[in-house]
Every structure is written in structure tokens, then in C-alpha cells.
Design brief:
Two copies of one chain form a homodimer. By secondary structure, the first copy, chain A, is an alpha/beta fold. The first copy, chain A, is built from 13 helices and eleven strands.
């Protein structure tokens, strides 16, 4: 029995004279928000996360706080959500921070950077290492408050029609890899090609692309890349994390009753555990199918390629940091977090994995 | 402004005649629970998590759902919480499932098992791989519903006064390592010694213990072990995960209004992200201090020791599975989850860590 029903019951008990003001009270207390997203409705991973956040908020508030979700293009285009929330066309959005690199170069640090933080490290940086306050500062000029809201996990390094055995094999390679990863590839002689997800399969099949990355085994297998390329490379050096971004209109968020503000923020935080569990489970299952049923071979980028990628990633990130003072402060905070967290991940997790797998 | 205040405001607006029933209604809607815990008040890690869950629930419910927290010994002893919630002396507890091994052998699977699941894998097994329904079934005979509520992360392998260079060094070694890990050590010729946390430092200092494990760098450094032992071993083969357990009295949980039931469950789920971030951040910082300021050396268990530990862990777990049919089903579900998830962790995370660290 919800509090709204309890309220209704007490009204009945109190008699008809109470009904009018009580009902008015119920209406007054109901809050309706719009959430615009950068995803198709219920897209596995982020689309499902966005809908679950809206559902959890409505249930935790006893129906007093309703968030109506709009898929990409329904109210505004996929990449129009930042302006839509800034202008209060919608009160919140579910998207990813790296979409805003064009106007806010440092926004990419809040999704993933090449050779950066793994999911458990990224969440620690944001929650404990000063990442949240820098993210808040970065979006404040736009009247926005960002938080983590879900995670698709570690990405793979991409699908290649031909093996990559040395740096020479990257020369002139036509590869789809957006953002900083693509820029790093360009500096190694590859040719990054920008294509939307819907065109990737055919481009890889026809040879317009020699290689493409997308996400992880769960989404990649659904795209069918394994039907035209049998070499699936690791590691996903370019995006070791997949944090989903919830953006709130600052005035709308601050205007909520405290309990509803905490409810929507806690619903986003719970998704950081729930959706990462779902992504890891599904990626693991799809990886098994790719190897055992689809004839896909998992290959490591060669050492000389990884070393060159790492060296050039450091240069690209250094240039990004130089763009302005907040970019530099975010770069320095993120670097300090990596230097603090990576040795713990190596000693606690990597060495355990080796021992468990009999490599110890 | 909370809904309770809004209610009060509308009552005032409605006039004195409404005040009495409205106030009565307010009292009726308020729910008070007791949460007993196995921890000292605000113990870093689990104690803080338990208090945060209570605080978040009260805030998300606008003060309508209040959970009063009792530290270990305040209402019932640390290990009396299971019976206390089963008998509804308290409506919920915050504890750890491996405390119940004596009465429920398979309960250990819901904290950690030797060479078992890492935190991100354990959460995936519980949320996605059937772990939750088996955990529910295991506790149903006691009228209890368990959920994950926080995580202290991967543990370390322990502090040793003398180096462990081969299997021979374990013969007769007096080590504090509770549960299955201790049993595995016993089969390798070590002598597990059961001591409460408060006695560990002095026992290690005086030589009553040759070695002890406790938790991770955050808690271990606070215990001061580095002052009497300089060799800190990895991996924590015996406990690769540190899930905190919230136990609910089934009748009390089912009796909550739906919105409050979802609020308390979502508060527990959010802690799986929040407290793991805190543990990783603090463990990483304390590890740095132990190495750079305390003169501690991180050592790997030798290969022959790890191989013997892994082989004997498999035997000990097989024996546990044979105890009864639910133990076998949980063992098989957990094993299947490890076989599904471990290759993904190795390909996506371990190889990324190697590449990031220049080992790729």
C-alpha cells in the first residue's frame, strides 16, 4: 500500500469535506520530468539503463515523481540532448560525456581516455578522487549537473579483416575508431573513417573499412561483424571504461524536494552496479559464443603496436590538457588517480587472475 | 521542501479541523526499523556502509522510514544478528554471509571462495547469473531475504614474518586465516590459528603467529601489521571479493509499502558501487604508503605454493558441495559463472592492465 493510497484512505476516513484539499495536495505534490536520451528506445545497455532509472524513480517516489523518457530523435536529436537540458526543454538527459568533445574538450575524461581508468578505477576517481567536483565545474557554465548513470564496461580493440602483425600493418589502414583513439591511430599512419553505427557492417563487408571498433562482444556480435572479420583484437586501449552520463538541469534538480533529489541521484548510482553487472555478464556470454560457435580468434595487438599507441596516446592527451586551465586540472587529477589506482589493480586483481588461471 | 512538510502546509491551509486526522495520518505512515550489525559503529568499510544505507533510506523516504542502527553488541552480539532478524528482534541486519558457514555451509559462496569470483564478477553472478535466487532459497527456511550491500573489494594474501620461498616454508607455519582459506593452508601443512582481530597485532609481534591475513591495505595498515612484518603477500587467493550482506526479515520486508521496499533495496544496491569505490581508493592509497613510507615489500606467493593452493582449494570446495543438494547447486552455479566470466576478465581487463603498464 503506497503513501498516496494511505493519504486517500485517510481522506475517506476524514469524510467528504477533506476530499477536495487532499486531492489538490496530491496534484500539487506530483512532479513530471522529461528525460531525453542519445539512444534508441531500450537499446541494450544504455537505453535499458535510462528506462530503469525512470522506472525506479517513479516506484521509489510512490508515483509522485514521473520521468517520461524520449528516445533519440523523439523530442530532440541524439546529440541535441546537452542543449535541450541546458535550456530546460527537458529536465534531464541520459547520454555519454565524450559526445561533447567538440565544445568541451575535457568532457572525454568522464567517459574514457586511451590507456586510462578501468570501470572500478573510474568510479573510484569520480566518487572519491575529486572527479565529481571537476565534472560539476566543467558543466556549471551550461547550468548543468552531471553524474555517472550506468556503465557498459571495458571495450574491445576492434575487428580486423587482416591480421595486424606489426606497426607497418597500420599504414593506410582504413579504421572506424572515433575520438582520441582514432587520433592516436592516425598518428601511427592509419586513416580513421567516421561512419555511423548503422553503416559499419556493410562498410567492413565491402572493404570501405579494413577494421572497425564498436563496443564489446555483446553489442559487437549483434552487429554481425564476426561474419566478415574473424580477428577480434584486444585490449580496447582506446576506451577501457563505458560510463553512462546523466545530465540534470541545475535549477530543476535544485528545485526538487530533497527526498526526490536523493531518489533520482541514488537511482543513477545503483545503475553503476546493476548495468556494469549486466554488461560483464552479457559480454562474457557473447565472447564465449564468438569463440566457440562463430570461429572468431581473439588476438593481442603486437607489442610494438601497443608501445607506439601508448606513446602517442600520452602526446595526444598532453595536447588536450594544454587547451585550457580546466582541461589541465582534469588531466592532472585523472593522471594522479591512475598512478594511485593502477598499482592496486595490478597487485590485487591482475596477480589474482594470473594465479586463478594457472599463470601464477 | 519534503512531502511531509507539504502535507503539513496543506493541513494549515485547510484549517484546524484538518490538523488532527492529518497528524494522526503522519504518525501512521512513519515506519521505524532496527538494523543490527556485526561491526563496531562506523567501522571503516562495512560499518560506514551500514550507516549510509540507514541514512539514505530515511532521506529518500522524506523521514517516513527510519532505520535505527545498532553496532555489534548493542542489541545482540556481532554473530547473533542472523537469529535476531530471523526472530524479528530486528527487521534487518548488515553483516557478511561467511559468518554462517557453521549452520549453512554454502553461505560462504555469497562472500568469497578461494580462487573464486572478483568483485565485478561476483556482482554479475548475483545480479545476472542466478546467484540471487539461490541465495534467496538458501535463506528462505529461516524467514530471511539476503541482498548484496556494499563491497570491501579484493583482499591481500597476508603478512609474513619470514619469506615464503617454497611449499616447505608453510610446514608448521602458524597463520591466522579463517574459513576455507585456512582449511586449504592446513592441507599444505600450515597450522591455522583462530584469533579475533583485536589480538592479531600482538600475536604477530610476539611470534604466537608467524603470519596473518586480515583484509586489504586500508584496514591492514590501520592494524599496524607493517610494524612487525615487512613481507605483504599477494594474491589474496582465499577472498577475492568482499560483499557485505544485508539480511531482511521476510515478513517485515514484504509488509513495507512497495515504494519503501524498493527504496531500501536500491539503497543497498547503490552501496555496491559507492563502497567498492571507497575501498579501492583507500586500499590504493594505503598500499602506496606501505611501500613508500613503511618499508613494506609486496611479494607474490611462489608458483609451487599457488599451484598447491589452487589444487587443494578445488578439493575443499568439492567436499563442501557434497554436503547437501543446495550446496551442490550453488557450487555448480558459481563454477559456471566463473568459467563464463573469467575469460572475459582476462581478455578485457588483464590484457589492458598489461598494455597500460608497458607489459603488453
Amino acid at each position: 500500500m503506497s503513501r498516496r493510497k494511505l493519504l486517500g484512505a485517510s481522506v475517506a476516513a476524514g469524510g467528504a469535506a477533506l476530499a477536495a484539499p487532499a486531492v489538490a495536495q496530491e496534484d500539487k505534490a506530483t512532479i513530471e520530468w522529461k528525460m531525453v536520451t542519445s539512444w534508441p528506445k531500450n537499446l541494450p545497455g544504455p537505453g535499458v539503463t535510462a528506462q530503469r532509472i525512470a522506472n525506479q524513480v517513479e516506484m521509489m517516489s510512490g508515483g509522485l515523481f514521473r520521468i517520461r523518457l524520449f528516445a533519440a530523435g523523439e523530442l530532440v536529436p541524439a546529440l541535441g540532448v546537452f542543449e535541450a537540458v541546458s535550456g530546460n526543454t527537458a529536465q534531464m538527459a541520459h547520454t555519454a560525456s565524450f559526445f561533447w568533445q567538440g565544445k568541451i574538450p575535457a568532457s572525454v575524461f568522464f567517459t574514457a581516455i586511451p590507456f586510462g581508468l578501468l570501470p572500478h578505477e573510474h568510479i573510484a576517481w569520480i566518487e572519491q578522487g575529486g572527479g565529481q567536483s571537476l565534472w560539476d565545474e566543467l558543466y556549471a557554465p551550461f547550468g548543468l549537473k552531471p553524474v555517472m548513470a550506468g556503465n557498459t564496461g571495458v571495450q574491445m580493440g576492434g575487428w580486423f579483416r587482416k591480421e595486424v602483425n606489426s606497426l607497418a600493418d597500420l599504414k593506410g589502414l582504413k579504421i572506424r575508431m572515433p575520438g582520441l583513439g582514432g587520433e592516436v591511430m592516425r598518428r601511427l599512419g592509419a586513416t580513421p573513417v567516421g561512419l555511423p553505427p548503422g553503416e559499419l557492417f556493410q562498410a567492413l563487408q565491402s572493404g570501405v573499412l579494413d577494421a572497425t571498433e564498436f563496443l564489446g562482444p555483446w553489442s559487437d556480435r549483434a552487429m554481425g561483424f564476426h561474419k566478415v572479420a574473424k580477428s577480434y583484437y584486444t585490449p580496447g586501449f582506446h576506451e577501457p571504461n563505458g560510463t553512462g552520463e546523466a545530465i540534470f538541469n541545475r535549477v530543476a534538480l535544485d528545485g526538487l524536494p530533497e527526498e526526490l533529489r536523493i531518489i533520482v541521484l541514488e537511482a543513477c548510482r545503483a545503475e553503476n552496479a546493476r548495468s556494469l553487472a549486466e554488461s560483464n555478464w552479457e559480454n562474457a556470454g557473447s565472447l564465449k559464443l564468438l569463440r566457440e560457435e562463430d570461429g572468431v580468434t581473439i588476438k593481442n595487438y603486437p607489442d610494438d603496436v601497443l608501445n607506439a599507441l601508448r606513446e602517442n596516446a600520452a602526446i595526444v592527451l598532453g595536447e588536450l590538457a594544454e587547451k585550457n586551465s580546466i582541461s589541465m586540472r582534469i588531466y592532472e587529477s585523472n593522471t594522479a588517480a591512475r598512478e594511485r589506482l593502477a598499482p592496486w589493480s595490478e597487485i590485487a586483481m591482475r596477480r589474482f587472475m594470473e594465479a586463478r588461471d594457472g599463470r601464477g
